[in-house]
Amino acid sequence: MRLLKNSPVGRRYQRLHPSVQRKLKIAVPFFTLGLVALVAAYFLSDPPEWGLWFVFALLFVLLEFFTVEVNDRLFHSSSIMVVMTAGVIFALLADSDALFAMALMAGVALFTPLDFKERRWFQPMANFGQLALSGAAAGLVLDLNLPDVEVVTTQVLLRVAVASTLASLAYVTINNTMVRRAVKTVYGNDNLQPWSQMNVLVGGQVVMGLLGGLIGAAYEIAGRPSAVLVLIVGVYAIGHMSLFAFSQLRESHLSAISGFVKTLEAKDMYTRGHTERVAYFSQMIGEDLGFTGTQLETVKWAALIHDLGKLAVPTDLIRKKGRLSDEEYAQMKSHAHLVEEILAEVDFLQPMVEIASGHHSHYDGNGYGGSGHTEGETPSLEACIVAVADAFDAMTSARSYRMALSQQYALGELRKHSGAQFHPDVVDAFEKALAKTGRTWGAPHVNDEEMARRLAEEPELTLRG
Amino acid sequence: MANWSPRTIVAASWLFPAVAGGVGLYSVSRATTDPFSLLVAATALVLGSLVGVATSNSGNRFTTGLAVAAAIPFVFSGDTGVDLGGTLGAYGVGLATVWVVRYSRGEKHRDVLPMMVRRFGGYVAYAVVYSGMRVGVFADLSGGWEDLVPFVGAVLAWLTAEVLLRAVLVLGPRELSRAYLARAIVYDINVFVGLALTGALFGELYPAIGWWALPIALLPYSFAHSAFRRFQETKVTYKQTIRALARIPEVSGLAIDGHADRTTQLATSIGMEMGLGPSQVEDLEYASLMHDIGRVSLNEPNVVKMGYTDDDIARWSSEIIAESPYLKGVAEDVQQQYEPYRKPGEQEDPGVSIVSRIIKVSAAYDWKVHKDRRSPLEALEDLHAGAAYEFDPDVVASLRRLLEARGVLTPVRS
Q: Do B224 and A242 touch (CB under 8 A)?
């Protein structure tokens, strides 16, 4: 590292924008690894039959062109079927190997249309690296596990099934690990939505690989009939369609959530930002407590809808200055279970609705709420997370009747009620996670609720203070 | 068939297993395929037909049986061409059994009959065209491109038969136009082709690799299956979301109960009656569910103090909708929902979409019936009075036909 610092290259490197530095930190090693794998593969294995290789490479590139975003910044395609089909054929035939054929095929598909449109350099470089390496690994597994034969018969099909499952496992594992690493390094945790349903996606990729391998062997056994090739292309298209359907469903969930949040904001400008911040804090706490994937996403989405019940509470009540009467307080409290009434028919939100309806439920069993709250019982951990995030943001943001309080005061309040109103583990996790971000929330020096109220009522006080 | 009595329907429905079974058994007697294979094929068809893939948005129901049916003529072909007897035998016996199972499950004749007739007609068209085309250069499965020509021809014949039969076999009050039904089938063509394709893959590979063809065809089939389910779930999610949003003004007491739901039902019925395409009917459904969402703004005390008009509500609604990516398309329709059909000096206002015009009529009708307590006939007469200025005369005429079919237009004696 020191050597780099003193060299001219190092100095130039340090002048680069941090985001470019982060990208280089991934792109250069990925690209080098891919190149090394490709060159090694070239010397270690026999070349494939180029005519057939070209047909499948074309299909591979085509499918990689149509990748679908299945999670935030995570793109998948059904191309693994193609590379496995070709790989199995080359591994089985006596005069060719799969290693170089697969590494090269994966490596040539480094561009997507977006790369051209946005003139990106990072994605193609990183993709070349991870694809070539995944392809080489899968090819190696196939070469080691499949016999070289002159004429392919149905006897090998069972071995093909096993070998292509193993090879796709290798391909998918390397591919996903490297992509996850790249995305996390470049975009960081803060700007990344949790990746949900990864087991479905990864499992789907492995099954696609298995199918691709079987198709390759079957195509060879049947004597490479062109009619079957046409049908095989149809199968690839079906694979693509299934991924596309996955992304559509995901998009529908995301836009449903954003639809609700937007409606809430349209009604009450005051809460603008509150929902997003509570979601941000909740995700932070969840990550610190070791939540991942779908579980983390559930907490985040629950936080996004937690105040939806307020849509049915009159705005003048929400903004009322001063204390509420008993009747008004009861009406205000109803927002915790109105969210259930509004979202009763939305199936995919039911787990989140239960969390959201418990966000005013206390750790010791007091408080109020809908199905997420049972008198005298501790609510779910997820509900406790949203409760802490909600309370913290309520204190550190301005209200119509008081100024924002300081972060120090808000954390003090959380700690004071930890074990009674708030879940102690969640409060601890929140403090830790908040310290890690290094950001401060709320107005500095407003360390007293009464003072905050007075400041809001008599703005001239702020001038003096 | 639209005005068949329930008894005729039951009789026709009972006739189905007799006809299909009869055709099946007669064909079996002329089949060249061995009885065991016939039994396997018929059983696979029965099991497949009972496993539903998805009921699509436009009301088509797809089953695994389609893929099985597509594979059978491929498998039942030898040097002398396709064994049409065996194929039709498997279809006839299989579908007759499916009818029996569905009847014993307690499904209504009204639902079972048209579906089974359509399936049988489609399968027979497919098999006949396929075997008819397997002559000359297409006679044997050589593995070349020409293998697929009979398949493509047969699938087209199948699709045509489905469209025709679906248009003819409308049971019950004729609220759906034939144009709508025909377009609905073409709308779901990807599902159909996906299923037929996995069947053909099995058929092409079976001679070479035997039963190994089954997993190879089943895997893409399962992908297709999950894709259709997800597409369906996507639609359901959108619909549920929109319904939930539409409920908000009602939960907050800012709109009359059920107005959005009733308006939507009426509007989509009118849309189908007028022969709009499935995607337009979908737009209509979304737009009419959301047409009053802007009323949530009435929760804001300042807004109520300042006063507002219907146009304001329409504008707020469309502003809220425009924020959701999947509703952007209908934001314009919602914005125009209170625009009159034409303005002075115009033949008609070309800027107002048919969706907006239908919503205008349906919402006004529902308002008159449920808020102003008018009888259906009076409400319709009010709309007639405004037709050709406020309301689109075509939409009002369609509403009249619909109400007549439902028999609610009895004059109130005073």
A: yes
